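Table S2 (continued). Query chain:
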Amino acid sequence: MSHEIRTPLNAIIGISNLLDQATSSNRDTKEYIDHLKHSSNHLLHLINDILDLEKIESKKMELNEGPTNLVSLVNNVYKHFLPSAKAKDLLLTFNHDHLIPESLMIDDLRLRRILNNLIANAIKFTEKGEVGITLTTILNQHNKASILFKISDTGIGIPEHLHNLVFDKFHQVQQDSHRQQQGSGLGLNITRGLVRLFNSQIHLTSKPSVGSVFEFQIDFKKSIPLQPENKSMTNEFDFPPCPILNC
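Corresponding output:
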């Protein structure tokens, strides 16, 4: 069923992109195409969320771990969200300690999804101030490292009696000042499921008009650092120096 839905939808998105490239003079037509692109991408995102949710609930999703530089991974996510934060005049920060091992066994796709969901929400519900990403090494042993992830914001916050409800499927906290913020209500539910996939739990600390902090701690296995490619093959040959102009 997923392929039956996504195949024609991807075709719509592809054709929309082609139309957008071919249409530059007619303002009305370009506006229609922009609406079409936005709606089709939103629908594809919703379908992917539902499919991921189904995999998590049926326990068909498994981690696919590989040697990864955690700091580099999170830094790429951070850079991805800089334009969104700048558009709202928010300060987006990324801080980490220097005890994080260079190479860990990580399912980078699932971890990136967790961070994307949390950071996107933080920016979405923050009108002024800052959003912070922090990594802290809790434990660094011979064969494993435990890292605490913290995503904080100075946004609208969530009342304490609703802290557990925000992780429910299709549930959205309604606040009068932010009724324009809408979504599927699946993001945090999927995030909690993905965090559990890493054998961890996500915790929320939040107060209305103060901000929110989402935290989770993951134990990673250490791996052998990725070695750079050997580019010294030509050093085996002893060629005499050659001036550039005479070669």
